[in-house]
Amino acid sequence: MKSPLALYGGKKIRSKPFAPHPVMGPEEKKQVLSVLKTGKLSGFLASPGDSFLGGPKVKELEAAFRTYFKVEHAVAMNSATANLHGALAALGVGPGDEVLVPPYTMCASASAILMCGAIPVFVDIEPDTFCMDPKKIEARVSPQTKAVVVVHLYGQPADMDPIMAIAKKHKLKVVEDCAQSPKAKYKGRYAGTIGDIGVFSLNQNKTITTGEGGVAVTRDARLALRMQLIRNHGEVVVDHLPDAKGLPCLGWNYRMTELEASVGIAQFRKLDKLTAHRVKLAGYLGKKLAAAEGLTMPVTRQGCTHVYFVYPVRYDRQKTGIPSRLFVKALGAEGVTFGAGYVRPIYLDSIYQNRRIYDNSHFPFDRVSAKNRDNYQKGSCPVTERLHNEGLILTGLCRYPLTTRDMDDVARAVFKVLKNGEKLLSDGR
Q1: Prediction pTM value
Q2: What is the pLDDT of residue 358?
Q3: 235-240, long-range: CB < 8 A, 24+ apart
Q4: Which has fewest Cβ within 10 Å: 20, 145, 283, 332?
Q5: Which fold has domain 6-19+271-343+385-427?
Q6: 62 and 202 in contact (C-beta within 8 Å)?
């Protein structure tokens, strides 16, 4: 006998809320107190000297990233959005340039391009990994194309070898957006260490966090210096730094505080543990849901590792018989949180549809190449639109401190809703 859905007054699978993320422990508290005792909450000064690079906690956090990812340079900022903007600006992206980016990502992957006065050009994604499809890149390369922002989405690395080959062929710079994929590996190399610059997020929702914050990594000393100038009002500093003379520079205040960095130091030491926990729960949930009709569990690209920032499931309405948004609504009533689709394809947002950021100008959209004038039309990235509309559901519940018992509840809720598909459709909610 079918158990009635909670959506119709039946007993919920899960009445107890899932434990929240992130978890702060004594390590974070100890770090923060050490800063408070000094009374110095920021170590930055916009002038030449040691303080141009920030305080001791910021430098310690950057050193941790350099060591872990085996790169020569790391630059911490107050958000990953700032790091993306700083990375593109350091690479010389400017007005009239076009930058390729996937449309299925957090908006900052594209808005950082606009912040440089450059033009985002959207490249469709692979249907099974949800990352930029290398086969579709060259169709969008124009004489104005300057760079590519590659997004390692949901914890899965993009297919970097062909992307880097295309970049080399067309002399394009490559920024890796690793906000959702710290510690993911592509054929033995850490995501973020393959292109020119890799950007990691320390936002409240990420695997490790400082509340808000980000870190960029690079092997290029000149790029690191440019990002440091961009981070800290570089226009008043550049003439006084021998190594920076001749660099065009406009800086912002993208500086990270010592308090944020101190939390990041403690959190970074937990990256391996927290990632292993995500992978374990994802593997367990995948086995529990393997027999679910109409649901396809996430794949991992051959030779790569997946770190499951979220757990994405391909959804086949033809097999389930239930619209995806009705399916996740029923799951929510059972106490289990899923989302239908991810974000709306970015080019459908109003600023791209209206091609207007400033009240009196269409800049920079009025400079888009003839080849890419159709890029913001509905249907320009059909794989992304199909996944968003009906082809994908996802959950962020594969994370610490949740357990396999919590995953049991997730699986029970999924099967309960599937078994009640006819009732859902007849009710039409």
Answers
A1: 0.96
A2: 87
A3: 236/46, 236/47, 237/46, 237/47, 237/48, 237/52, 240/47, 240/48
A4: 20
A5: Aspartate Aminotransferase, domain 1 (3.90.1150)
A6: no
